[in-house]
Write a structure and sequence with these properties.
Layout lengths: L3 H11 L7 H5 L28 E2 L8 E3 L2 E16 L2 E8 L8 E4 L3 E8 L8 E3 L23 E7 L4 E6 L4 H6 L4 E6 L10 E10 L18 E4 L10 E4 L3 E8 L5 E5 L4 E6 L2 E2 L7 E2 L1 E4 L4 E7 L4 E7 L22 H10 L30 E4 L2 E5 L3 E7 L35 H13 L9
Parallel strand pairs: 1-11, 3-6, 5-10, 11-14, 13-24
Antiparallel strand pairs: 2-3, 3-4, 6-8, 7-9, 9-10, 11-12, 14-20, 15-19, 15-21, 16-17, 16-18, 16-20, 21-24, 22-23
The protein binds copper (II) ion (CU).
Length: 456
């Protein structure tokens, strides 16, 4: 797209201000990489237009360089090892060492040049979901460009025409490459840093894998029965807690690249949807919500003022999505007396354990023998006991004493005295049927021939 001579010419214009050599500016920029799955602090811009950077849950923002008015990024598509939560590593495909890939941040009006190097065992492309760009930059393999072959590097160049939240993912062998974890976020900040400004701005993608207990590589042909429901390729208890300062204006940008919808629910607050991957929602078109359904291939931006201190569950409302693998194919055993059959099985298998007679909560605290590299279905420890969760679940921690820009986990909430649900120590009367229901029943019995036993 750009020949080397043009490239050198542009680079020459910035020599003097830059610390890199003329030769270095002509070359492909470095591709920073990380092996950590911990949230890195927001990356403040050191050049170009100012903006308020975002925080990527369990992720990071890709550093870039200015080159003659172009913002240059370098993505490397490659196999990666991602820790889904402590105790489980997944062998995925991603970008620059991680799945999802790093967040790309830029400003409305910026000219982007993105180098994409393919270190996968098959060809790939990158589609820039939601970005308005020339057709030939849209990244649909075969339709708008040749595939990026194994070992090749391609250049994408486009100007960011509008601010908002977008995604990137391959449009080549798409089912396999997305099931392997290839995706990332693009945040285009408004030209005016005061427009839609918030105090804390978090981004995460909803993604899902189907990994057999004991395995590390996802099955890529799965259509619906995924068993690991992730935020940024992490499951509870591996998803970062979300630290928020009391009265901060908070934004979550949530993109869905799974094969099903996710109603995302925030406790303790009401919010408004302020943006989609199509753009910002005008104030007059917003209404209050406590859950927002993020459909397949959609992005929803939600905003609220965090006025309620505490530890607030923040999760997908599909209860199967707040569990880890092994949550399916388990029959409902509530109320089933397993004792007679258990006695017979135990004669054959001494360690056999009957499950689920009184619900499944016992699994939250159980130390069951699991295959290596497998997470418990329900797990996590809170200040009051086991949390019995997995998958798409984390905790938003609203605290009065957080410093601006501090994203460290502040620990569990210290509840003011008298504000925690407590046990009643006194006697509890027997249940009585409502008066109306009793009267009706008596009346019906009286009308039946020979009905009822007492006569008044
Ligand atoms: Cu869900």
């Amino acid at each position: 797209m750009t020949d080397r001579r043009q490239f050198m010419g542009r680079a020459a214009a910035v020599i003097g201000a830059a610390t890199v050599s003329r030769a270095a500016m002509g070359a492909v920029p470095e591709a920073p990489t990380t092996t950590s799955a911990a949230m890195q602090p927001p990356l403040a811009p050191t050049a170009g237009r100012p903006y308020n950077p975002v925080a990527t849950l369990n992720g990071w923002t890709l550093p870039w360089r200015m080159n003659s008015g172009w913002k240059e990024f370098h993505l490397v598509a490659e196999p990666v090892v991602r820790e889904l939560a402590p105790g489980m590593q997944a062998r995925l495909w991603g970008y620059n060492g991680q799945s999802p890939g790093p967040t790309i941040e830029c400003v409305e009006g910026d000219k982007l040049r993105i180098f994409v190097t393919n270190k996968l065992p098959e060809h790939t492309t990158i589609h820039w979901h939601g970005v308005i760009l020339p057709s030939g930059m849209d990244g649909v393999g075969g339709l708008t460009q040749p595939q990026i072959g194994v070992g090749k590097t391609f250049i994408y160049e486009f100007e960011m025409r509008k601010s908002g939240t977008f995604m990137y993912h391959p449009h080549a062998d798409e089912m396999v490459q997305m099931a392997m974890g290839m995706m990332g976020f693009i945040v285009v900040h408004p030209k005016d840093p005061g427009f839609m400004a918030v105090d804390r701005d978090f981004v995460f993608l909803l993604n899902a894998f189907d990994i057999e207990p004991g395995a590390a590589a996802p099955k890529t042909n799965t259509m619906l029965e995924f068993n690991l429901w992730c935020w940024n390729s992490r499951v509870f208890p591996g998803i970062d807690h979300v630290p928020v300062r009391l009265n901060d204006r908070v934004r979550f940008r949530i993109g869905n690249l799974t094969m099903t919808n996710h109603p995302i629910h925030v406790h303790g607050h009401e919010f408004e949807v302020t943006g989609t991957d199509g753009g910002w929602v005008p104030k007059s078109a917003r209404w209050p919500e406590v859950s927002v359904d993020v459909a397949v291939g959609q992005m929803r931006t939600i905003e609220f003022r965090a006025y309620n201190p505490g530890d607030w569950a923040f999760h997908c409302h599909k209860s199967h999505h707040t569990m880890n693998a092994m949550g399916h194919d388990v029959p409902n055993m509530i109320g089933v007396d397993q004792k007679p059959v258990l006695d017979r099985i135990t004669r054959l298998i001494p360690d056999y354990m009957a499950m689920g007679e009184q619900g499944m909560a016992e699994m939250g605290s159980m130390e069951m023998p699991l295959p290596d590299n497998t997470l418990p279905m329900m797990t996590g420890q809170g200040p009051f006991g086991p949390l019995e969760m997995g998958g798409m679940f984390t905790v938003m921690k609203v605290r009065p004493d957080l410093k601006p820009g501090d994203y460290r986990d502040p620990g569990w909430y210290q509840h003011p005295t008298g504000t925690v649900a407590r046990e009643w120590a006194g006697p509890v009367p027997d249940a009585k049927r409502a008066v109306g229901a009793m009267a009706q029943e008596t009346d019906m019995k009286a009308r039946k021939p020979g009905g009822g036993h007492g006569h008044h």
